[in-house]
Amino acid sequence: MSLPVIPAPAAATTGDGTFTLTTSSGVTAPPELEAVAARFVAAVELDTGLALAGSTGITAELRPVDDVPPATGLRADGSVSADERYGLEVSEAGVVVWGPTPESLHRGLTSLRQLISAHVHDGTAVLPAARVVDGPRFAWRGLSLDVVRTFHEPDEVRRIIDMLDLYKLNVLHLHLTDDQGWRVEVPSRPLLTEVGATGAIGDRPGGYYTQQELADLVAYAADRFITVVPEIDMPGHTAAVFKAYPELGPQEQRTIELGNGDKLHLGTLDPGRDETWTFVEDVLDAVVPQFPSSVYVHIGGDETWGMSDEDHAAFVEKAAALVRERGKRVVGWQEIARAKLDPADVVQYWLDLDIDKMGENPDAPTPPEDLLPVLVEALRKAKHDAPKALEQGAKLIVSPVTWLYFDRPHADTSADPEQEKARERLGLEFYGAASLEHGISWDPADIVAAEQIAGVEAAIWCETVTSSSDLELLLLPRLSGLAEKAWSHRTTTNWPNYATRLAHQSPTWHNRDWTWLKSVEVNWS
Ligand code: TNX
């Protein structure tokens, strides 16, 4: 019997007997762990309604765990000594959770949250005896969130952070700028928010995060050991910049109709103009300090339609140098590998569609035959990006469209007819639908050798998302599948076993009032 925990722990055994938690139970912890313990108690109440109002039954201890291998890859907070490995034991004598750092204890208590949720009835949790030793496979486990195509209010972002936390994901990559809007304050460039932030896709409302709102989000995430990594997408996807400061844009701003109601914007920042670089410096000077917990700044670099390769490389190299001058490291979408990189740079691999082998891979989306020539060319070039990154010594964040683009439509039907209507309109048709089972039927080390992986990150793009519940419907349960791939080892996961563990998640989602796909393929509890 596997424990009802997602992501699957590295090692878990079950024993005899039980231990019962009630409202008179609570956590005994040394002073360094008091904040972590308090957050655990608050989370359990939100997950289950059970208020652990006492102080005994659960013991949290600072001691090392070395029975499982340490994580590989990079951490967004730059820490090399961080350790998330933990142990958890439930016996008739009580519950003990241990690990070497507050972060590791937080991860261990998160597994305990899930065990409590799976066993709680009428305010009492009867936990079966079990012993877990666990730790993540990859150090960087993230979600890239598009806050441009639809603006998500800070409260909604906090809900997403809570979801990441429940699945031990530790990076929130905020895609803060794009053609349809600019979402971060730059005091020296007020028009970015006064003009650039208005509007989103279609007639959806725009918006932006004030410096205070971002500080609050970064702190809320940090309390849960989640690093917020900012992305300023350049030199393409900058129509919102040109709306605010037309002098930075091309003479004529062209768009191409995509046929799905959306437009491709042609027009990029020009690396040959001095005012481009004053602008980029103004932006970096304002944005970098707003994300103190991240040692990385994401510079985008993707889809620079109509720009020459030389100009693109010149832009990326200079923008990257400006990021490094500010003491930060560079991340960019895979196209940045066409420029000269530093081995400490990180390249986010997303375009795994092979235009020359269309239809041969049953897992991958099949691009339509009538693809625009500009897209065909982009897909042809993209094949060489990951090898170029690796040749330069850069590591990859694995975000393949096929497995980790959460804006693929859901293939599983919903048991709820109202939700079925939303499901049918959500996700980009272009990608084809993918099932939850499909979502866990791959392994990051089959994409690129494990030593070359910096991290594993899903992306949720919001072209089809019109509300918070749309967003959540695409994220849940896929976020748990992401965690299973990024945290668990290959051998611990298969669909029947995962589906059983997944079924136990729904009471928490219900109690938290999160929207999730009520797939008919899962026997929800
Ligand atoms: C590609 S992924 C984009 C986004 C779109 C997304 C839709 C990437 C770096 N660029 O601008 O929203 O496809 O899935």
UniProtKB/TrEMBL annotation:
Signal peptide annotation: none
Keyword Cytoplasm in annotation: no
Enzyme class: hydrolase
Keyword Hydrolase (UniProt): yes
Start and end residues of each Glycoside hydrolase family 20 catalytic domain: 138-489
InterPro entries in the record: Beta_hexosaminidase_sua/sub, GH, Glyco_hydro_20_cat, Hex-like_dom2, HEX_bac_N
Domain Beta-hexosaminidase bacterial type N-terminal stretches: 4-134
Enzyme Commission numbers on file: 3.2.1.52
Keywords: Glycosidase, Hydrolase
One Pfam short name: Glyco_hydro_20b
Domain of life the protein comes from: Bacteria
Catalyzed reactions per annotation: Hydrolysis of terminal non-reducing N-acetyl-D-hexosamine residues in N-acetyl-beta-D-hexosaminides
Family affiliation: Belongs to the glycosyl hydrolase 20 family.
PANTHER family: BETA-HEXOSAMINIDASE (PTHR22600), BETA-N-ACETYLHEXOSAMINIDASE (PTHR22600:SF57)
UniProt protein name: beta-N-acetylhexosaminidase
